[in-house]
Amino acid sequence: QVQLVESGGGLVQAGGSLRLSCAASGRTFSRNAMGWFRQAPGKEREFVAAIAWHGGSTNYADSAKGRFTISRDNAKNTVYLQMNSLKPEDTAVYYCAADARYYSSTSTMRSEYDYWGQGTQVTVSS
């Protein structure tokens, strides 16, 4: 079955960096957009970043622009989220997601993604 497994979360001080990885198995996503979302306690899951199948087009939430970078390695069936200048408000569970449609755009909507990982906790201390 299809699995998305996130890793790389942890505890970091404000201003620090983390790199999240999402390894897919069960099928290849080299022709699919992939994204990152996050959910803080008591809040809705929100869009963070997305990347097109070819990696040449990306989309970021305003909160992530200039600090986060999404990338992918289709040979490894893996997508990454480099997070720099982290703030306490970035604390959340981060989820990887994949769109089942081929060659789709980098959607910001949860409903456009069909596969989800279990999430990895990111905690930023002040």
Key words describing this protein structure:
126 residues; mainly beta; seven-stranded mixed β-sheet; globular
Structural class, please?
mainly beta
The gross shape turns out to be globular
User: Which residues sit in consecutive blocks of at least 5 with pLDDT less than 50?
Assistant: none
Largest beta-sheet characterization: 7 strands, mixed
Compute the number of strand runs. Answer: 11
Number of helices: 0
User: Please, what is the oligomeric state?
Assistant: single chain
Order of helices and strands: EEEEEEEEEEE
Q: What is the terminal-to-terminal distance?
A: 40 Å
Mean pLDDT: 97
Rg is 13 Å
Structure description:
The protein has 126 residues and is an all-beta fold. 0% of the residues lie in helices and 52% in strands. Strands 2, 4, 5, 6, 9, 10 and 11 form a seven-stranded mixed β-sheet that branches. The chain has a four-stranded antiparallel β-sheet with strand order 1-3-8-7, with no helix packed on it. It is globular, with a radius of gyration of 13 Å. The relative contact order is 0.32.
Layout of helices and strands, plus pairs?
Blueprint: E1 3-7, E2 10-13, E3 18-25, E4 32-39, E5 46-51, E6 58-60, E7 68-73, E8 78-83, E9 92-102, E10 115-116, E11 120-125
Parallel strand pairs: 2-11
Antiparallel strand pairs: 1-3, 3-8, 4-5, 4-9, 5-6, 7-8, 9-10, 9-11
